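pipeline/complex-builder :: batch 7 item 3
reading input block
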Amino acid sequence: MAVTVLIQLAYPKALSYFIDNINVQKDMAWFSSLALIMLAVLAVQAVAATARYYIFESTGYMIVTRIRRQLYAALIGQPIRFFDKHHVGELNNRLTADVEVLHDTLTMGMAVSLRCLCVFIGGVVMLLTISPALCLMLVFFLPATLIIGKMTGKVYRKRARLMRDGQAECGKVAHEHFSNIRLVHAFSQQRTARARYAGATEHALSLSVSSSALFALFRGGSSFLVYLALLGTLWFGARLIGQGVLSVGDLTAFILYASMVTEAAGAIGEFWNAWMRTIGATEWIFEVVNSDRAPGAAKGEAHGEVRLQGNLAFNDVVFSYPERPDAQALKGIGFSIAAGETIALVGASGAGKSTIASLILGFYQPDSGSIAFDGIEAHAMPLAGIRSKLAIVEQEPSLFSGSIFENIAFAVAERGVTLDEVKAAAALAFAHDFISGFPDGYDTVVGERGAQLSGGQKQRIAIARALLRDPRILILDEATSALDSASELQVQRALDTLMQGRTTIIIAHRFSTIVKADRILVLDQGRLAQQGTHAQLVAQQDGLYFQLMRHQLARAGAQPVAA
Ligand SMILES: Nc1ncnc2c1ncn2[C@@H]1O[C@H](COP(=O)(O)OP(=O)(O)OP(=O)(O)O)[C@@H](O)[C@H]1O
């Protein structure tokens, strides 16, 4: 950078020397050697500019990648309540577009403004050496440019944050519709999707346009000041030439230095604004990254060996979701489950079954009361240690778009899993045969969210994944949609293997599952209404369980009886 700045600063002086010698030197050889020197200097400048460009660009990419990684690490470590508030599309947008804003400022913005600062200082020195009197003209104009830049900077910062929020909203809307594209087409809602996206982009656009007006005003104002300064210099310079205190070459050099200095001052002002915009746009990123460093933020990842037998107790647990603090999802739930017991959670929709599962998994903490594993309160143990002894098989199993091997091995991805281990788990889950039937076997790619697999196949892969984790406590969210009877049988056999010797909590929907459970917990609007075996509960004909069973069996044309 120093080389390019020095060369840039030398140009006007060389030009002045050239102009003042046009009428003095008669020898063409003098002009030729001057041209050769200039050529060599130009070549050096080109090499220096290339090196500068490379260094700044590549350093910018490195910094941005580092920040992106830090942001991703901070996001992935956020508690589940954070994801209740922030949409996936929004987060994706923050991770890509918001971080990208930093790149432009850190690379060319930073390079240009550093160079401009050097040119500015060097230019002022040159101006003073040529004519201190003419410099007085500039004294009025330069501070004005800098002050305008500083004033607009603050406004930019605020606006930039609003603009990034607007962009993130667009990302959220697009992601929502892309991820539910089948639903959008099935309900012919493409037009609504377009309208919602247009609405979001319209809002983002109006924010950007009003910011552009501010930017344009700043550009116009500073360029007016620059030309005004030039005009004043010419007027005063002509007078100094007339008085014989300045040569034509000196005035030319002065004007060139003056325009260099004002241009540099303008660029520094612009960079200041760009920097403010970047700070505004990336404030959210640094808030998240810093929140990750807050004490206790990484609790979910705190490792530590936890030995569990599988006893579990809820002691008078009260809980409201952070996004809905006024509605208690659990209103003083208490129960205990012995190691190896199979418990069915039943209750109407919204009764609190999934909430209980979320609290066992440590996604949320109770507002009051406590959860204990083997008699020890959960908050006294490392969360990751507890989770290493838990596994969940979801209603609609979540699969990654990678291979079947990767999806099963995900259970214990922190250690190297062998193909044999994965095959053994798949065999126990009755999945090995269908996986081997695929041309690519365990390397078969399952598509986004397992789109290339049937419902039963997805479930058996999820069961194999849970088996590989070898949990002490298992949470099963039973699928409500029925599989065909052959598939159902295979999934049931896989589940029976998985449940052997483990504490199992099933969010149960099927009669067959419910009656087989060792104990049934009946939930009613966040309260534990009844508990007991199927036989004990159907005997209480005024109880909620009897009613629930009556509804369920009415559809099957039967009466609730002890199994
Ligand atoms: N992430 C959330 N944020 C706010 N409220 C929630 C959230 N998840 C569930 N709820 C509310 O908490 C209550 C209990 O919901 P929960 O999902 O535990 O019921 P459920 O018994 O599992 O129902 P279903 O059988 O329909 O899945 C409901 O009123 C629900 O609207």
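note: The chain has a mean pLDDT of 82.
queue -> next item
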